[in-house]
């Protein structure tokens, strides 16, 4: 039986310190060049040489100010501050590559859906269909205050808002412009056919939109949808919307359970459980032999900041971990931050000393250290024993971490039939799923396409008069069949 091919994203962020904190001080680390376009285009070209499926760019709105009640350590260690906009990098990187995909984090809580739809469609056009969106709702109180709110919207309520946000986007991306709406006919002086471009009418609890999508259909229409929520409400959202889910694993049995939950959520939403690709964050230190890899690990540890890692985790939980003595059990408190992160403290057994030990390399992702054979063995064990589809590979020292992996681990995986030897043609969605550029028919968003809505309206006996597409008696159905025609 053919071995499952590992999917692989580089995990990064438009900042100095991302996951493995303190490594910006390493003499070979170039992360402080994040402000330079060449840093990103060269990285994209490196990843494409390694046949990476994508560059997954994290992002936050707000700052990590929970630890010690201020941003002092955050600024000293550059714990995701300063941080620049990830979306603005894509045009240049797409122009420097041909196949590499781009997973872009954007917080929907603070983005108007109408304008966000245009930005993503623009990037999908400019990249020839290589963009994905990592859907986040935010978790930092500092972001809420910066955006003019007294406090952050409650956790589950943020997902209610996200459901409606996605509905608006599906209507814009999938339903506003029909297939064939664009003629680009110079002789007849018709670029787009008015009868095939439809106004979206949406009046919901959170959003009101009446307007035409500003972009003609991009190669994918809807970008590939990524999501990382691990709470029960986040999993329900993922089951309905996500095509790729990013999880954080601690051990194989817990990861297996998390993968099963993701697939069960998709099945509960009426989707094929295998229609979702599940990625886990992982860090790798590899060298030609184990002794060299261990030496490199020791070298990296000398530059890492465990305290910065704990400060990051402090904001993830919403709990100021600096208040606890080194060996004092950390008291759990329900917060409005990342529910799954705070849950790790629920049994009141962890101490700050233990957290510092866990964050020895500045981050808490699974770390693999060894020779190419050893690393490949362990990666394949994670795939085989957990049901994962792939990994988000962090940077420890950049770009060294990626370059080492490409030079040493990729050939080993390829020799075992566990990694591609060439890119498939087509969009990011087609590369990942092999089923075309657009959302599959069973995905919730596909129901908002013009054809699907025409069929539904006819089945309901609703009028299709272009001057009154929904009919005055049927306005209450506008949200269900919003792309009008």
UniProtKB/TrEMBL annotation:
GO molecular-function term, one example from the UniProt record: monooxygenase activity
Protein name stated in the entry: Putative monooxygenase
Pfam families found in the cross-reference section: Bac_luciferase
Residue positions binding FMN: 59, 105, 155, 159, 231
Ranges where the Luciferase-like domain occurs: 31-389
Origin: domain of life: Bacteria
Keyword Flavoprotein: yes
PANTHER family xref list: ALKANESULFONATE MONOOXYGENASE-RELATED, C2H2 FINGER DOMAIN TRANSCRIPTION FACTOR (EUROFUNG)-RELATED
SUPFAM superfamilies: Bacterial luciferase-like
Entry-linked InterPro entries: Diverse_substr_monoxygenases, Luciferase-like_dom, Luciferase-like_sf, NTA_MOA
Keywords, alphabetical: Flavoprotein, FMN, Monooxygenase, Oxidoreductase
Family from the record: Belongs to the NtaA/SnaA/DszA monooxygenase family.
């Amino acid at each position: 039986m053919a071995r499952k091919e590992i999917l692989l994203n580089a995990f990064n962020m438009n900042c100095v310190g991302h996951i493995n904190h303190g490594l910006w001080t390493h003499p070979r680390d170039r992360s402080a060049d994040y402000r330079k376009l060449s840093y990103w285009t060269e990285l994209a070209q490196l990843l494409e040489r390694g046949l990476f499926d994508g560059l997954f760019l994290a992002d936050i709105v707000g700052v990590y100010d929970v630890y010690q009640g201020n941003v002092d350590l955050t600024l000293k260690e550059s714990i995701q501050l300063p941080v620049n906009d990830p979306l603005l990098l894509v045009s240049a990187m797409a122009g420097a590559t041909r196949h590499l995909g781009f997973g872009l984090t954007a917080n929907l809580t603070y983005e108007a859906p109408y304008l966000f739809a245009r930005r993503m469609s623009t990037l999908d056009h400019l990249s020839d269909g290589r963009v994905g969106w990592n859907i986040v709702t935010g978790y930092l109180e500092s972001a809420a205050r910066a955006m003019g709110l007294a406090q952050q919207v409650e956790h589950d309520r943020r997902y209610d808002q996200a459901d409606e946000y996605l509905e608006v986007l599906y209507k814009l991306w999938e339903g506003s412009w029909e297939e064939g709406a664009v003629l680009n006919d110079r002789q007849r002086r018709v670029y787009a056919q008015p009868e095939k471009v439809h106004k979206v009418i949406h009046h919901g609890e959170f959003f009101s939109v009446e307007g035409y999508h500003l972009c003609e259909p991009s190669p994918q229409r809807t970008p590939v949808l990524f999501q990382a929520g691990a709470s029960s409400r986040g999993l329900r959202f993922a089951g309905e919307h996500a095509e790729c889910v990013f999880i954080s694993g601690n051990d194989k049995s817990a990861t297996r359970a998390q993968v099963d939950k993701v697939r069960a959520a998709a099945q509960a939403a009426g989707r094929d459980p295998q229609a979702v690709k599940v990625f886990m964050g992982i860090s790798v230190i590899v060298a030609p032999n184990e002794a060299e890899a261990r030496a490199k690990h020791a070298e990296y540890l000398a530059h890492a900041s465990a305290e910065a890692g704990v400060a990051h985790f402090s904001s993830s939980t919403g709990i100021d971990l600096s208040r606890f003595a080194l060996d004092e059990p950390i008291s759990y408190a329900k917060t409005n931050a990342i529910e799954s992160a705070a849950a790790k403290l629920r049994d009141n057994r962890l101490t700050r000393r233990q957290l510092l030990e866990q964050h020895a390399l500045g981050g808490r992702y699974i770390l693999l250290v060894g020779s190419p054979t050893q690393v490949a063995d362990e990666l394949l064990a994670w795939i085989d024993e957990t049901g994962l589809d792939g990994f988000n590979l962090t940077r420890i020292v950049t770009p060294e971490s990626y370059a080492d992996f490409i030079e040493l681990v990729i050939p080993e995986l390829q020799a075992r039939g566990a990694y591609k030897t060439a890119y498939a043609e087509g969009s990011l969605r087609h590369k990942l799923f092999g089923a075309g550029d657009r959302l599959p028919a069973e995905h919730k968003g596909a129901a908002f396409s013009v054809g699907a809505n025409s069929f539904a309206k006819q089945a309901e006996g609703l009028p299709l008069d272009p001057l009154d597409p929904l009919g005055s008696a049927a306005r209450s159905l506008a949200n269900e069949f919003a792309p009008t025609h």
